[in-house]
Amino acid sequence: MAVVMPAASSASSKFSSSPPPSHCYGVRVIAEIGRYNDYSYISSSSRNIIKCKSIFLQSPLSSSLHSISCRSSSTSLLPLTHHNDGIQSLFQILPTDLRDILLCDPNQSQLLEVVLDLGKLPQACYAGDSGRQVLRNTQVTWQELEYAQNAIGTFGDDNRAGIAGTLHRISAIRSREGAVIGLTCRVGRAIQGHICMVRDLLDFGESILFIGRPGVGKTTVIREISRVLADELHKRVVIVDTNNEIGGEGDIPHPAIGDARRLQVYKPSVQHLVMSEAVENHMPEVIIVDEIGTEAEVNACCSIAQRGVMLIATAHGEVLENIVKNPILADMIGGVKSVTLGGHEARLRQSKKTILQRRAYPAFGFLIEIRERHYWVVHRTARSVDLFLSGRKPLVEIRRRDEDSNVIIERWRTES
């Protein structure tokens, strides 16, 4: 199938002509016609042509609401799927009775983490409606924690460890004396299908910042993006992997990242140095990094953006407002400064004499709020920050999946 989007009369295309990922072939796009950039996908399997709109309007403030429904054919755009996640390796560190319970669990595919806290009942946390469930009616003992710790091996300075060849992560809770008194055993899965939510944005070649609460799936998304950029768009991709969450534990990266290269970070406090090293030593076209959180890391992001390298990153925060009001992270989206207006200018603007403005151009062209796994809010960063600082609600795109795994895009609406 070929998907062709009509070209704008006033601007040349910024999109790549390379084909979409194989699991997106056969997508049928339904849309109204408007003023959009050129966008084309060619499939070798069909000559059908469908016309639809591209991603962002030239002048969105004057446009009305539009929507796109991406529907799957019998051979493409499958619902979210994941490869063998090696979950048995994670179960091996658990007490025998808990291992047997989880191996027979019908909701095993929805398992998110297993929690073992000394003197408390062991619990399993699931996605969806299952929530947290108690696995047995006896408490966790010292002996069980010691068994798990011996099976895991050494924890890093950040109290995290992994299992070689997998994406699973084990985090420790320690007493004041340094003894392990609790474990959070988090299941890591290489899930495919998220890329269809943002595949069109990758063709812009602009940096993307993903934000969302812990556990919502940010790392899973950027892991799949790294594979698509390296294997399907043939970019030179370097992953800065601080906790081995993106590429998995061990010196050989997990197959989920494809041909992307990985730089491991030996301790979290030097992540910003490894980011700079990636640019200076390995000539990347794209750098992917998880959990930007310190001033040094923010400065590294801004430096990378000025060098013309595409950056895909994540940060904690549920909505754009959280990043704008965070004194450390705000510089990634342009920063905020206070400006004093003259009396005449303030009257023309019908505003106070002291207002807030964006200080610089954002390091990230797009900011995506992952509200839920299947509900995303997409911002054009500079535009949304300016509207927010002026007291208006940003115009955004709402991207969501329906019950049939179709991707629905509602563009240029306000989102509270």
TrEMBL record:
Ranges for domain AAA+ ATPase come to 204-339
User: Can you tell which superkingdom this protein's organism belongs to?
Assistant: Eukaryota
SMART domains found in the cross-reference section: AAA (SM00382)
Keywords annotated in UniProt: ATP-binding, Nucleotide-binding
InterPro entries listed in its UniProt record: AAA+_ATPase, P-loop_NTPase, Spore_III_AA_AAA+_ATPase
GO MF terms listed in the record are: ATP binding
Q: What is this protein called?
A: OLC1v1018532C1
Species per Swiss-Prot/TrEMBL record? Oldenlandia corymbosa var. corymbosa
